[in-house]
């Protein structure tokens, strides 16, 4: 006998990671606690429960709630773009290809290469289109690689990268950072050496952030925090080379700005150019630094607008306080000099207040 019924089904789900390590558990900028916090900012769709050592004794379990229930879209797989392929990789691809001739190899094994483009590349390299890829000599492959670099080829598709999203970055910052102002920007995808990439910047200003220290900078590559080698990273160079003084902030020459600000910078790419195998710093490619600066400048303009507006309000509050403080004293003096009664004195107070209010707003 079969029947359909709706029954309650509450089963814990998610991903649990367990690892045993032996070492000293310390706090600070590079601690596990700080790393988990940065992970939660870059993955606002996930809820993370962090149980540190001795949590049972001190009750220090911390939950980073998700700010979005939408799972990031799955990235698409793309073929290598010719402008991003190095000589050694090209030689290996020609040896491993299933194409019968080198023109078909360029068309089928690479993205954005049409039959016409493949013909122009081979003509410039002086290689026959019917040449078998596995039989091409090293000199012929070098000429093909050089011709690829000089050819005009359409940029690769950008659906292969997974950005966080400007809206989710701002929501994640609002959830985790106590500040007065938040801003975020997600730049349009662009290309370096045939590899698509995208820059995102999030900013939190004021609130509980320390005002007399260097800003807090979080660096990310494909949602993964970069903890070390900050001085050698292109993100740090882009931040320090941006003129933050024009955005109403203090900045020593050639250094990070000083003020109550947290800055998170994310690069999403199919191939992030790290400076070493440790993957802790991003190489200084001009195209990447240019995009980083543009994203930082856009967020800088937003925070500068907020700072100017706040200062105007503070100045107005000071002037209003002066009016409230000194006008009655002036009226009392006029009352004594002109022998005014209390009713005339109050009228003077109202008239002086009205005159100063109008002049303050002009």
In summary, what is this structure?
This protein is α+β, with helices and mostly antiparallel strands. It has 3 domains: 69 residues, Helicase, Ruva Protein, domain 3, CATH 1.10.8.50; 142 residues, 2-Layer Sandwich (Ribosomal Protein S5, domain 2); 53 residues. It is built from 10 helices and 8 strands.
Detailed description of the structure:
The chain has 362 residues and is of the alpha+beta class. It has three domains: 82-150, Orthogonal Bundle (Helicase, Ruva Protein, domain 3); 166-307, Ribosomal Protein S5, domain 2 (2-Layer Sandwich), CATH 3.30.230.10; 309-361. Helices cover 41% and strands 12% of the residues. It contains ten helices and eight strands. It has helices spanning 32-42, 55-58, 87-96, 102-109, 115-125, 138-150, 166-176, 234-241, 286-338, 342-361; strands spanning 48-50, 62-64, 181-186, 190-192, 195-205, 216-221, 224-226, 261-269. The strands form two sheets. Strands 3, 4, 5, 6, 7 and 8 form a six-stranded mixed sheet that branches. Strands 1-2 form a two-stranded antiparallel ribbon. Strand 4 and strand 5 form a beta hairpin. Helix 1 packs antiparallel against helix 7, helix 5 packs across helix 6 and helix 9 (286-338) packs antiparallel against helix 10. The N and C termini lie far apart (85 Å).
